[in-house]
Design brief:
Elements: E1 5-8, H1 17-32, H2 37-46, E2 49-50, E3 55-56, H3 61-64, H4 67-75, H5 82-94, H6 104-113, E4 117-121, H7 126-135, E5 144-146, H8 159-168, E6 175-179, H9 182-190, E7 194-198, H10 205-208, E8 214-216, H11 222-230
Parallel strand pairs: 1-4, 1-6, 4-5, 6-7, 7-8
Antiparallel strand pairs: 2-3
Helix pairs in contact: 1-2, 1-5, 4-5, 5-7
Length: 231
Amino acid sequence: MSIDALLFDKDGTLFLFEATWESWARAVLLRLSDGDLSRAEVLGRAIGFDLPAQRFERDSVVIAGTPSQVVSALQAHIDIEASALERLLNDEAAVAPQVEAVPLTQFLENLRGRGLKLGVATNDAERPARAHLTAAGVVAHFDFIAGYDSGYGSKPAPGPCNAFAQACGIAPDRIAMVGDSLHDLHAGRAAGMRTIGVLTGLATRDELSPHADIVLDHIGHISPWLDDQQS
């Protein structure tokens, strides 16, 4: 069956996860600790980030969680009201450096040229998500952009996927959810979509394969896969 729309995760899928979020984590931790490295290391451990090594643990809440879940992890160690802390996290996320997984403008123009509808469903907040896509010059290529705070819920629940299908008027089985984490693939499967795993996040091929129709090294390999689906 042919694919008429693609719904992308953002971090680890459109953008390389480590390049963006390791920088974000360091900035957040140093800001919250007023530059006290020992204190920043304690806060880092609370969110699964090894500050001296500049590396996320594989079970870090940051990898697939929402900002509100990161807030909950931090609040056990810091006395900041939840809404203020979430604003701080989102402010830092909006200016975090982004490294494209592939040259996105050319990639997305190719997909649009095929007549595909395109969307983004991220567990990041919508404001920094739009800021990242705008900075990359590609926000106009998407028919739908949703964060965890856009009113559709967050992955791995299927709400954002269902909302995209409804917004586009396309049956879920003619849509593929593209992501680097099990949250992405579980959400897509729960919505009745095809699922494409990519290896530009922290999950391995072995972890993603049982939950994906195909696992690709990066999103740049999607077009050949689409050709195979339509042949």
